[in-house]
Each structure stands twice: as structure tokens, then as C-alpha cells.
Design goal:
Helices cover about 15% and strands about 35% of the residues. It is an alpha+beta fold. The chain has one domain (about 1-155): Translation Initiation Factor IF3 (2-Layer Sandwich). The radius of gyration is 21 Å and the shape is elongated. The N and C termini lie far apart (about 70 Å).
């Protein structure tokens, strides 16, 4: 009897991993530099660090729920945060975003055994993107060229 209970628990644990969603993440249309680290290089290649040369202007947070079918093979599309980043950085008077992070959480519906083993049952993931909007200390960047300080190629754009 104990062996049967162990097999049942192991089977449930394995099967609860079937539900979910996948996604692609992008910020291709962002007009500002973005870094997953707390630093950005300036136009000369020198690294500027948050808390030293870079000052925080505010935080950035974006949350989206992704839906998936066929065990996540079919998803509700890519996540592009370009517009959200552009709006937040402009609103806060910043020059970029550092310490960008993605957090992925399962929705409660992913644990409804035995529904999640059905390929047509929607799985979902809650994706939260966070970061820190920054500006270079003691300097103002013209709004028309936000990348100029960080990228010499901005003049060619």
C-alpha cells in the first residue's frame, strides 16, 4: 500500500510540470540603453555603475500573464517591453535602465491535477519585469538623443 501511495505521489509530481507557457522576451524598439547588470558603458567604453556615476531616477515594473496550450508549445506571443521602457524612462527623466530582471511564476491553474495533463487545458505563467531607471549624475541628456551618451553610433541613427 505504501509503495502504491509513493508511486501516486511521484506521478502527480511529474505530471504537474506539464502545464505552463513559453515566451520570447525582447526590447528591440527601446530608445534607451538597457542592462541586466547594475552598470552601463558610456560612449567611450568606460563602465558607469549604479550608485557611483549613475543615479536612480525610479523603478520600472511590468507584469504580463502568458497563456500556453499543448504543454506550452503554443503561446500567447512574445513579450516586448520597448514601449513600456520608453515611456517610464521619459516620464522619470532618465537615460536608461539597469538591473533589469525577469521573474516567472506559475499560475495556480497549473496545479489543478489532472486537468494540466490535458493538452487543450491552458497553462499560464506570470512574468514580471523589473529594473531601475537611471541617469548620469550631474548631467542632463537632450531628450532628442537619449542614447548619445552611451553609444557613439547614436549619431548615425
Amino acid at each position: 500500500m505504501r509503495a502504491l501511495a509513493g508511486v501516486a505521489v511521484a506521478t502527480c509530481a511529474i505530471l504537474t510540470g506539464c502545464a505552463g507557457a513559453n515566451y520570447q522576451f525582447a526590447a528591440d524598439r527601446a530608445r534607451y540603453p538597457i542592462s541586466f547588470s547594475p552598470a552601463l558603458p558610456d560612449g567611450t567604453g568606460r563602465i558607469l555603475y549604479l550608485g557611483h556615476e549613475l543615479e536612480p531616477k525610479g523603478s520600472f515594473e511590468f507584469t504580463r500573464t502568458q497563456i500556453g496550450f499543448l504543454y506550452g508549445a503554443i503561446s500567447s506571443g512574445p513579450i516586448d517591453v520597448s514601449d513600456q521602457i520608453n515611456a517610464e524612462v521619459a516620464q522619470k527623466g532618465g537615460e536608461g535602465v539597469v538591473a533589469l530582471a525577469l521573474r516567472n511564476q506559475n499560475c495556480a491553474t497549473n496545479y489543478l491535477f489532472p486537468l494540466q495533463i490535458l493538452p487543450f487545458f491552458p497553462g499560464c505563467q506570470i512574468v514580471t519585469v523589473t529594473g531601475t531607471v537611471i541617469a548620469v549624475k550631474g548631467q542632463q541628456t537632450p531628450a532628442a538623443a537619449p542614447l548619445a551618451r552611451f553609444d557613439q553610433r547614436a549619431e548615425a541613427r
